[in-house]
Design goal:
A hairpin with a 5-residue loop joins strand 23 (about 375-380) and strand 24 (about 385-395). This protein is mainly beta. Helix 1 (about 65-80) runs parallel beside helix 3. It has three domains: about 25-180, 3-Layer(aba) Sandwich (Collagenase (Catalytic Domain)); about 225-315, Sandwich (Immunoglobulin-like), CATH 2.60.40; about 325-435, Immunoglobulins (Immunoglobulin-like, Sandwich), CATH 2.60.40. The chain is built from four helices and 26 strands. The protein has helices at about 65-80, 110-120, 165-175, 210-220, and strands at about 25, 35-40, 40-50, 80-90, 105, 125-135, 140-145, 150-155, 160, 230-235, 245-255, 260-265, 270-275, 280-285, 295, 300-305, 310-315, 325-330, 340, 345-350, 360-365, 370, 375-380, 385-395, 400-410, 415-425.
Amino acid sequence: MKQSLKFMLFAAVLISCTVSGFGASLDADSASARDLRWRGNTIRVAISSSLSEQIPSIKRGSDVALAVERSLERWAEAAGIRIQVFQTPLQNISPSGPRGDGISLITIASTAENALVFNKNGNSLPAATRIFFDRSGNITEADIVLNASHQFSTDGTFGTYDLETVLMHEIGHLLGLDHSPTVGSLMWPQISRNGLFSVNSFFRRELLEHDIASVREIYGTITDDEECCGSVEINFAGRMGKSHDSAFVWLENAGSGKLFTTFSVNSDSESVRLRSVPEGTYNIYFSNTVPEGISGGTMAGTFEAAKGETTTFAIVDWPSANYLVHIGLNGETTALSVPLNSGKTFTVSLVLTEESQRQPILYSHSPYIVVDEDNILLTKDPLGRSVAIFDVTVAEDASAGTYSLCSLDRNGQEACFPGVFTVSAHQNPWYKRDFSKY
């Protein structure tokens, strides 16, 4: 790694500190990190010398220093905090237990101690974050370890993990964010290797609106925008009942159809309060579970957020059914968001939630995402599932963010799937061309 990180780098003497009172740790990729945050607005992060060495796990020529710098800088700007970075010869993250060593470390060292993290949580993970916290929920240390048994790069090399994307996901955990229930989020629990849908994963490097909203719910609003912000209190009047352990709710801007934020709720939750909702009109959706795949839900209604005011909204009836889909490009379908670009048309494949002998009804509530409803091809995949193949056109003025796809089942019931489309500045080469003009 270069000796000078441009982002708040300073030389420091490492001093181990002891946390007073009760403490605990968790591995964020295998347990809930909800309701955890750093007490202050300055966080010190140590970069292990293992990241400055030429190791087989990272492709030669990768700009590791820049990937680390940008990953930390983006989250710091979004959360309104300072992250001070320094280098250290330390290699191992702290073992799980009530206390760590007081040093928040990012490392890729291939040591027996670091390997234990993946032996416990699954060696398929590209990285993991271990968080230490006190009984008040204040984070006292957070260590990130990259899995040295996988390959990383910063140039989109096929079959490798994008180092910057993985670091940004783990830094979200370092700040206290849990996994997101929405596929378009950077905090979605699955990270793909470069080459999924025959494109690289650079689009995952971006913090989109719902990622920023999530971290600002923890650390507060940091904007001078005149339109920001109001609060909304969502009451679960009907409750979910004992048949469901959890559910999730998401908000979309009613004008743009762009996802604003998502959150999961437990079955015993009575209400959730969001403090930093920009002024505007929002559609609110809910699903009766938080599955491992892409989950669909139904619209509960619309509310207005006003600056300096608290709006209340009650969800009375929870749906009796859940919807799961897979979506993709180039004949691949998976539980990951499809990268799109503004001003382009893409051919999308959707595994339907039910066996169908008729053309499905597919659409988006966003004026910037247009489904060609007149030319939907219905076919079967190798597993015998019904698959709809259709064109999606993104408007020239569509802004970066994630958008939903909706469908109507045979009973006229609407199911919307948040975040399945990610409009990004990073180019997806698989858009449809009009060869007649060549």
